[in-house]
Amino acid sequence: MLKIDSLTKFYGKKKIFNNISFFVQPGEIVGLIGENGAGKSTLLSILATLQSPSKGSFSLNELKFPINKKEIRKQIGFVPQEIALWEDFTVEENMLFFEKLSWVKKDKDQLRQLCLNMKLDKWQEPTKVLSGGMKRKLNLAISLIHDPKLLLLDEPTVGIDLKSKIEIGNHLKALANSGIMIVYTSHDMDEINSLCDRIVCIGEDNFYQQLLANSGKEILSF
Length: 222
Ligand SMILES: Nc1ncnc2c1ncn2[C@@H]1O[C@H](COP(=O)(O)OP(=O)(O)OP(=O)(O)O)[C@@H](O)[C@H]1O
Ligand SMILES: [Mg+2]
Fold this sequence. Notes:
Blueprint: E1 2-11, E2 14-24, E3 29-33, H1 40-47, E4 55-60, E5 63-64, H2 69-74, E6 76-79, H3 91-101, H4 108-117, H5 132-143, E7 150-154, H6 162-177, E8 181-185, H7 189-195, E9 198-201, H8 207-211, E10 218-221
Parallel strand pairs: 3-8, 3-9, 6-7, 7-8, 9-10
Antiparallel strand pairs: 1-2, 1-4, 4-5
Bound molecules: adenosine-5'-triphosphate and magnesium ion.
Magnesium ion binds at residues 40-41, 81, 154.
């Protein structure tokens, strides 16, 4: 279980968010929404242990940040908002490269299957010739190489066509059904509504709360 306890973040004197607390249970997909600049990416990068909160803490499967930072990292798959790939490598070479960096062993067939699960079949193509949506699928496949317990996805479906969005959504639901926890940001409310069990809203404006008032979802506001 991911337990987030009173996380607060300042950049200098500017408060980005205050006292965020919620939890994610195995099998759950939690949506994180808010306007541009609300702090969604900042919160995900804190949970990915890439930066520290100003106050508060969190734990993942009883491992507490910051004491157990290294162990927490092993259980996390992170897809950042900006695509992070080796452009001159083929899809295969990117998968093999990130497999080497990870602490699990996966053979080529297993790595290829992760891409096929995302409906990405350009195994021998150089990454630089892939479309933006295909690169996002590759980033997602890379985040799954080490069998993470918690997936942190920062707008993973931006630029992805509707058919692929639905395919990725179905795959995320299947991952959740296998017991993975997912925290997921998107500006697409239809996607949030169809995928997420609970929704966390960041920001003072209550625009999103009103928008989702009739969704029947549990909404937490910070
Ligand atoms: N390294 C940094 N130093 C100072 N301020 C930062 C830094 N990173 C982000 N910010 C500020 O923190 C706020 C939150 O940014 P963040 O990227 O987390 O928002 P977001 O909710 O992900 O927005 P978007 O929907 O546009 O992706 C913004 O005002 C941003 O300018
Ligand atoms: Mg962001």
